[in-house]
Design brief:
CATH superfamily: Gcn5-related N-acetyltransferase (GNAT)
Shape: globular
Order of helices and strands: EHHEEEHEHEEHE
Radius of gyration: 16 Å
Distance between the termini: 39 Å
GO molecular function: acyltransferase activity, transferring groups other than amino-acyl groups
Protein name: N-acetyltransferase
Pfam family, one: Acetyltransf_1
CATH architecture: 3-Layer(aba) Sandwich
Keywords: Transferase
CATH topology: Aminopeptidase
CATH class: Alpha Beta
Helix content: 25-40%
Number of domains: 1
Oligomer: single chain
InterPro entries: Acyl_CoA_acyltransferase, GNAT_dom
Strand content: 25-35%
Length: about 180
């Protein structure tokens, strides 16, 4: 595979329709941010297209400051999943934010969930690609997510600083120690 590129998305991007459709397909309604809204959200967000050999293959959205990054969303096009693009994208994202604490979330493991197998595979994917369990969760929108970090040491206070950007009348994230 050729080198991957991360390029900022905007509504004038020639691949905007691809990214918008991917966002709609990859995330359930209750977890999805509207792409147009994300591009205009008044926070330090990176809304980025993931390209391989000049072709769009995925997208991610991240909040960042000088010390930490929270990858809110990461998706690879459904036809390309299982072909190494996700691992390659994670490596590229981690290199892009080198020197910062990089965190992401995923649905908590629940054997009774309709997508229990998918949740298990997703977590195994992130652990296989260098992320660690933090023993913290984040709750908002009546949903609960497990937090993973691309470092064995997770600084919850750094992550909480990023969550200030998320806090609105509709979103009030709570970081909870589960250890």
């Amino acid at each position: 595979m050729s080198p991957m590129e991360l390029l900022r998305i905007n509504k004038h991007n020639q691949d905007y329709a691809f990214f918008n459709a991917l966002n709609q397909e990859a995330f359930p309604d209750e977890e999805r941010w509207d792409l147009h809204h994300a591009l205009h959200y008044p926070i330090p967000a990176d809304v980025m297209g993931i390209y391989d050999a000049g072709k769009p293959v995925g997208l991610y959205m991240a909040l960042s400051n000088e010390k930490a990054v929270y990858v809110c969303y990461l998706a690879i096009h459904k036809d390309l999943r299982g072909h190494g693009y996700g691992s390659k994208a994670l490596k590229c994202i981690c290199e892009h934010y080198q020197g910062k604490q990089i965190c992401l979330d995923l649905e908590k493991q629940d054997p009774k969930a309709d997508n229990a197998h998918q949740r298990k595979i997703r977590k195994e994917f992130y652990l296989h690609n260098g992320f660690y369990e933090t023993h913290y969760s984040m709750n908002f929108w009546d949903l609960s997510f497990e937090l993973l970090c691309f470092d064995a040491h997770f600084d919850a206070d750094l992550f909480r600083e990023l969550c200030v950007y998320l806090t609105t009348d509709e979103i009030d994230p709570h970081i909870i120690w589960e250890g």
